[in-house]
Amino acid sequence: MEKLFDQGINIFANYESFNFEYGEGCFGPEVEVRTLDAIRKSLLEPNCDGPEKVYSIAMDVGKKQHQQQLNEQHLLFGLVTYAKGRLGQEPIRSQGHIHKTSAYANDWSTPEVYEIWSGKAIIYMQEYAKDHPGRCYAVIGESGDVIIVPPFWAHATISANPENPLTFGAWCDRDYGFDYDDVRAHKGLAYYPLLNQDNEMEWQKNPMYEKSELVVKKPRIYQEFDIQPNKPIYKQYEEDNDKFKFVPRPDLFKEKWLDFIP
After folding, report:
1. Per residue in 51-97, pLDDT tens?
2. Which residues of 30-55 are buried (b: 16+ CB within 10 A; e: fewer)?
3. ∠115-63-61 over CA atoms, to 5°?
4. Per-residue pLDDT, 3
5. What residues are paired with 13 via a beta bridge?
6. Structure confidence by residue, pLDDT tens digits, 93-137
7. How far is CA 230 from CA 96, 186, 223, in A?
8. Can you give the pLDDT at residue 59?
9. Which of 262, 232, 230 is nearest to 244 (CA)?
């Protein structure tokens, strides 16, 4: 079992059991495991080889003292850990999706606030999953980095280093759900991440989409949401319980999403 960076909560990934271990004073569910067979339709090579268990998810974790409050705020903290290895030419990654709209958010799709705990991640996102994807970004994050995916954007989380497992936490809306229809209709997102022989990331355009530019960048500091760098996002929640209100209620922060840059 590897202890990760000081994530502000006593929960750790166990890479041998592909599970999470909840320390004293913490709560969390049995993990959900996504298998290779379950995500083949979204891959460049649907018949590729790869780990049988691709990633495990623990949605709704936290400190017991916050459990009722999180429910009342419609806020949820989730954890995900990825296996080592590849999916054919591709890195380990999630399926591309859009967050379903939430009645609590007045029928807005909800954003997500990622925090990388271990490994190296690329959060790929595009404005739309229609024929023209709009703006496309690949944001590269390492341990401690925070990356926000805005409402309505299609996105996927990619492990950028096949030799090290990726683990990350995320603030989500409690009414979370995933819409895969448009992404699957286009056989994935607008760009496929590929690993070359040196395990370096390359990008292949998906011909199902119209031409668009991919911007590869590092995370920025989200001053408009008062996100503090180098401080775990769970600890920031403890210090200010309303800081992540924009996650379940993005409709109250409309001006902050205009021309949003990840």
Report:
1. 999 999 999 999 999 999 999 999 999 999 999 999 999 999 988 89
2. ebeebebeebeebbbeeeeebbeebb
3. 55
4. 44
5. 20
6. 988 899 999 999 999 999 999 999 999 999 999 999 999 999 999
7. 28, 38, 13
8. 95
9. 232
What six digits make up the tokens of 44? 């460049």
Please tell me the CATH code under which domain 13-257 is placed.
2.60.120.10
With beta carbons less than 8 A apart as the criterion, state whether 130 and 182 touch.
yes
Burial class (CB in 10 A: 0-12, 13-18, 19+), 194: middle
Which pLDDT band holds residue 2 (cuts at 50, 70, 90)? very low
Whole-angstrom distance, CA of residue 251 vs CA of residue 258: 12
Q: What is the 3-state secondary structure (H, E, C) of the chain?
A: CCCCCCCCCCEEEECCCCEEEECCCEECCCCEEEEHHHHHHHCCCCCCCCCCEEEEEEEEEEEHHHHHHHHHHCEEEEEEEECCCEECCEECECCCEEECEECCCCCEECCEEEEEEECEEEEEEECCCCCCCCCEEEEEEECCCEEEECCCCEEEEEECCCCCCCEEEEEEECCCCEECHHHHHCCCCCEEEEECCCCCEEEEECCCCCCCCEEEECCCCCHHHCCCCCCCHHHHHHHCCCCCCCCCCHHHHHHHHCCCCC
User: Cα(92)–Cα(82) distance, rounded to whole angstroms?
Assistant: 7
Domain boundaries, the chain: 13-257
